[in-house]
Design goal:
Two copies of one chain form a homodimer. Chain A is of the alpha+beta class. The first copy, chain A, has nine helices and four strands, in the order E-H-E-H-E-E-H-H-H-H-H-H-H. The longest helix of chain A is centred in the middle third of the chain and has 31 residues, at 94-124. Chain A is globular. The N and C termini of chain A lie far apart (46 Å).
Chain lengths: 223, 223
Amino acid sequence: MKDSQLTVTAYDWVPGFAQGHVRDLRVRWALEEAGFPYDVEVMAQGTQKKPAHLKRQPFGQIPTLEIDGQTMFESGAILWRIAEASAALLPDDAAARDRVLSWVFCALNTLEPPVGMLATLELFVSDKDAAARLRPEIAAAVTGVLERLVVALGDKPHIVGHFTVADIVLTTVLRDVPDDLLADLPSLRAYVDRHTARPAFQTALAGQMTLFAENAAKYERAG
Amino acid sequence: MKDSQLTVTAYDWVPGFAQGHVRDLRVRWALEEAGFPYDVEVMAQGTQKKPAHLKRQPFGQIPTLEIDGQTMFESGAILWRIAEASAALLPDDAAARDRVLSWVFCALNTLEPPVGMLATLELFVSDKDAAARLRPEIAAAVTGVLERLVVALGDKPHIVGHFTVADIVLTTVLRDVPDDLLADLPSLRAYVDRHTARPAFQTALAGQMTLFAENAAKYERAG
């Protein structure tokens, strides 16, 4: 994969709440950690639902990763594929590697769904009153899983042994948790800070944000 | 893995709405398709949140899979691990194998979250009025992704080439979609019917349901 032609898709711009949180960030971060060179195909906002993109990404989402002309989709799948090809992202030991696999799916299928439900209530449903009434209960569900994560992490710097792809996925999921829910969980805040301080993360984030800054004038109106 | 000592955890009983839908079903199904012998460790309902289980499954969930004494968790991770070890669940071709990986994550991170949100609204939140008001909008989101899936599936019998682990995950996610949302999507209903007719699925389902029948008297009261 190091010698493959790799192309990530990314938006030229997204609204403010999503900036720094679009999922090509995960893919860029993993590629930076692995040291795999890649190109970025910049897509104008809105074109993700056009036939050309739907043909390679059936749900009109970002990101995709083209590997020597073959397209993969879903950030979790792409991250696992990159990790399989890089000793920087997976442990050598087979049992530890299986634990990393468990945590990758845990981050995306146990932690992210309630976090995403909270975001749906806050940002995407039109009945704001009903959403506000349900928020405390869903927030409690998020807190419930986060408190379990606190116990599992303990005082370890990373979730399994040294830094792995599981830390990339967990960190990006935790970055989407509202601040008030992380306020009383210092070990998780420190975990996020520790991983977002990595040069590879900073390079990935800058790559995404630079595009949005460059294209803001196309989408944003003064005032 | 064929010669490994494999043990799946399963509940002795769950409430009616969850019967036939607990996620050890996925793992049993994959093991049956692969032809890997396995034991079942039956856990009394409630013991999943006790320290002994939390030590191996940090979120107190079912299932886990013990492989020669090492525990994996998250049904998606376990299924991928089984698939890696069985030609019955993955294609030989590398690009097709990557497409299967994309679909496994898609089923769990794009399709299942809105389906799960619908279930949360119906079954788990206490403010039933607020939940009912949000249901149409979340149902529309589910329909939106299902309609994309209809296009991606087309008239193929399986999502990628021959039967793979992606069909196991997709089928089990689609089985959790409320009937009214599948009513107008005959190709998805046929897809579910086609896969649940497989002998390996029927064996897996019977394995789960038999336990619940055997233990019903412990939990259910007449009337």
